[in-house]
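Subject: Interface between my chains keeps coming out wrong

I've been trying for a while to get a sensible model of this assembly. When I model each chain on its own everything looks fine, but I need the whole thing in one frame so I can look at the contacts. Pasting all components below, labels as-is. Any help appreciated, I'm running out of ideas.
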Amino acid sequence: MALGERKEAILKIIVNEYIAGAMPIASKDIAYNYNLKVSPATVRNDVAYLEEQDYVMRPHPSAGTMPTDKAYRHYVETLSWDVELPPIEQDLLYELLREAKEETEQWLKLAAVLLARFVRNVAVITLPKAPQCRFKRLDLVALQDFVALLILVLYEARVRQKILSFNKRITQDDLTMLANKLNSVYAGMTNSEILAKKTEFSPEERQVTACVVDTMATEDKLEHGKPFLEGLHLMLSQPEFAQNPRMLSLLELLEEGDWLGNIPRPELDKRELRIIIGKENPDEALQDLSLIIAEYGIPDKARGIVGVVGPKRMDYARAISSVNCLSSLLTESVAEYI
Amino acid sequence: MALGERKEAILKIIVNEYIAGAMPIASKDIAYNYNLKVSPATVRNDVAYLEEQDYVMRPHPSAGTMPTDKAYRHYVETLSWDVELPPIEQDLLYELLREAKEETEQWLKLAAVLLARFVRNVAVITLPKAPQCRFKRLDLVALQDFVALLILVLYEARVRQKILSFNKRITQDDLTMLANKLNSVYAGMTNSEILAKKTEFSPEERQVTACVVDTMATEDKLEHGKPFLEGLHLMLSQPEFAQNPRMLSLLELLEEGDWLGNIPRPELDKRELRIIIGKENPDEALQDLSLIIAEYGIPDKARGIVGVVGPKRMDYARAISSVNCLSSLLTESVAEYI
DNA sequence: TTTAGCAGTCACAGAAGGAGAGTGCTAAAT
DNA sequence: ATTTAGCACTCTCCTTCTGTGACTGCTAAA
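Reply #2:
Try treating it as a single job with all components included. I did that and got this:
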């Protein structure tokens, strides 16, 4: 299955050139610009072989060649995945993120914006999430005579809020006592443990509990935390999106759909970084794109996804190193407040 | 300045037809399809006058006419702004929104999604916000030995969270006591009142106070709450966005920029609904579009913006009635938990 | 003031042609 | 067996040209 040294080199040139210019590559250019010591005719022979093996294709018979999915796959396989961003850029990222560190959710959004700018494509980051959420604490704030705000804090510093309407007038003091009681009973519990707990409760306590259980159940059902999606305009300004229809269906998918759910998840424990190229993607609207995704966080505690979405013709080395770098930064930060 | 009855009618037909079809309208079609009892030649004379007065223009000399900004302006001025959505649709909106009512922020997002679908354009809704925020309550949750989560609740049920790192080990009990103290001292205060308050404080208390002050100052500085922007793909699938460049600069503006800041704000007290057409917009990238925005909420307490962004050629009647309806629904809901 | 009639203008679509890019093939050279 | 030069061939792309159809603007009569 080996291609031979020169064919390998030529394939790499084709992929690199296409990534850089989004135009089919001519054999002449390969031969002359890369100092291969062979004539264009020889290159043509090799390229013909690559075409036969489905590594490259032509938009029309008398055009140059462009890589197929198989070529990209081959390309990333032979790429060193351990590349790192230049230290200067790593520091830059680190500095930019450090300032906003105490902002929790906003922090992740900022991270997504920065990642998007770094790779000039769409960045996606989900909130970290435990497989089973655990009750940390709740607080009740009186809003009106019959209405209160429930603030539910789960482990991993996740905060959820709900409005509650009671059937009787209730003061902030009542609410505080109620919160204290539930806090001492439910501390550290999972949802099923809370459900199993049988304690003597007042109607209000039962109502709050129901709301907590409900909220936690919703959390547990979600496969991912809320995704931050940034840099759409960066990706869509690439030449492959010159005609609209493509762009629109994509926009719709990314904006509305739960496309992340369909994507095979990389596994954190294995330090895995997953690359999904074109047709490898289960989602049809994504089959012209490549995804690079990694997990961050702490296994069994809190895991989120960080990734890049872009045309197949993307700078894989840069995307990989950026995702890796961000994944480390995010993991670090999650560890700090888990 | 009056146009005369027939010219008025013809102008209205042109706007309506162009809204429906996005194509220049021919005088023949106007005369025959609308039963005007005059010949196309007469219509042509009138249209020539309208063109002279800058109400209509032609993409090229031998084409039909399409409305100018001035025509749209005239059109909406003569439109009845008090139109309401059909009751069935109002009920639908109401029902769809009722289910998720306790979710606060998510609720507004859903409202934006629904509005976008109703008008098949971009919907924007900002979180309600008071001119001066007031401290309602805070809670401190121990995350690690030196790290705590500060949950700050402001009036209007706005919740903000921050991570705090202390210099000494601190337990949940310490934190609870600290929170109780600050809660009793700061209840109901604005930021400047908190700053003016001179009480004997421990270093930790001072640190938390500083964080609270900082967060509230940031809130006060923002002119709008976080905007929810939905339905981009709906708007961008309209024919006016067939070529990309236009679409991209727009996408960038909406995604990144603080375009809302530049827009003259409608005033709630006057039950105002503001319509901004094309060139009337200060933002250049929005000058092909129309905005319809209203405020919702309660004057001096909590106000947010609800609006629609779309091509100038949009269904104004529907957009206006939808925004009106949503503005009422949102105002109602804000009143419930202020 | 309105209308019919008609010449005139312009966009658009399709055909035709030329230029250029790049290949595939063949036959000779290494 | 591999590499190379040379050349005919193919196909896209751009430009030009032309005919058609859609509308108008104007004029002169109703």
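Reply #3:
Confirming on my end. The mean pLDDT of chain A is 91.
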